[in-house]
């Protein structure tokens, strides 16, 4: 079987309106992909930058997949959250990016967005906090019904990923 190694880190996030951020992340693949080692999902620690705009997490990712085909190439999806001074967690944004298909080291910036909701929900969010969230997280990376959502652009999540491909040439894939 062909093998894919993803080794790297979620460096951090910038451009968000809040400080004190953390990230929940996961990898989504097609049914032909088998996880050999590593974690399919995880969560970073909270970073509250004092001086800079960038929240640094340096959260490691080390995943090893085997596959018989290219369909369902892995995607990394994430949810960025803000933790307030009372320990309450509030969604800041959703985002996803395709894992690069070429071997080597890649610096990736993943843009994020959040649902706007109705004007009543926006007004409530200003005074009380919270805000609309997706009922099903698969909307983050499938895009099937995402076009119906009214969204607002948020910040960026910065990634450094190294990709190692093995035995893809035996399955007719040149790289």
Automatic annotation (TrEMBL):
<protein>
    <recommendedName>
        <fullName>B9 domain-containing protein 2</fullName>
    </recommendedName>
</protein>
<comment type="function">
    <text>Component of the tectonic-like complex, a complex localized at the transition zone of primary cilia and acting as a barrier that prevents diffusion of transmembrane proteins between the cilia and plasma membranes.</text>
</comment>
<keyword id="KW-0206">Cytoskeleton</keyword>
<keyword id="KW-0966">Cell projection</keyword>
<keyword id="KW-0963">Cytoplasm</keyword>
<keyword id="KW-0970">Cilium biogenesis/degradation</keyword>
<comment type="similarity">
    <text>Belongs to the B9D family.</text>
</comment>
<dbReference type="Pfam" id="PF07162">
    <property type="entry name" value="B9-C2"/>
</dbReference>
<dbReference type="GO" id="GO:0036038">
    <property type="term" value="C:MKS complex"/>
</dbReference>
<dbReference type="InterPro" id="IPR010796">
    <property type="entry name" value="C2_B9-type_dom"/>
</dbReference>
<dbReference type="GO" id="GO:0060271">
    <property type="term" value="P:cilium assembly"/>
</dbReference>
